[in-house]
Amino acid sequence: MTMQILNYFLASIIAYLGLLLGIFLIKLAPEEQKPGKTYFLLLKKITFFLVIGFMLFFYNINFILLVALLFFIVILMINKKLNLEKSSLTYFFLGIVFFLSSKILNLFVIESVLIFLYGILSASLIIDLKKKNYKDVFLKNIWFFVPVVLLYFIL
Asked: What is the predicted pLDDT for the residue at 82?
């Protein structure tokens, strides 16, 4: 079953707009950005872990391999070898995950929501209200749409 083009691209835009909600939330409560930074980072890592975990689970990866891969990712996150601070690269990867998840409807819904939540957390961390870098937040993460569009039309 292939996904209709309109549903696919509207879902990608909505998932990407998590960044907008993250900016909006920090504008509403700027005093929470600094004390909440550690929690935002932790939730961002957990959300990324869930994105990968659901993808592997729905594609029926061997359970032992699934646990080993997820354990390896957790170790990388703990040792700070997996750097989620380079949001453009992370969003490029999330675009690939978004496309791959479109083949399984239940996975697609889950991944879209997780990417949306990841965007909220990501924008909450990188927005600087003094510099008003709103445009930078969107432009740095526009790489999300490269694999979303290219893979849809190529495959």
From this structure: 64
- Angle, nearest 10°, between helix axes 105-126 and 37-58? 160
Amino acid of residue 77: M
Asked whether residue 144 is assigned to any structural domain, the reply reads yes
- Residue 68 maps to a domain: no
Q: How many domains does the chain have?
A: 1
Inside any domain, residue 26: no
Q: What is the pTM of this model?
A: 0.90
Return the structure tokens found at 51.
């994105």
Question: Tokens 């697609």 sit at which residue?
Answer: 108
Token pair for residue 9?
């691209």
Q: Please state, in angstroms and rounded to a whole number, the distance separating the CA atoms of residues 137 and 24.
A: 12
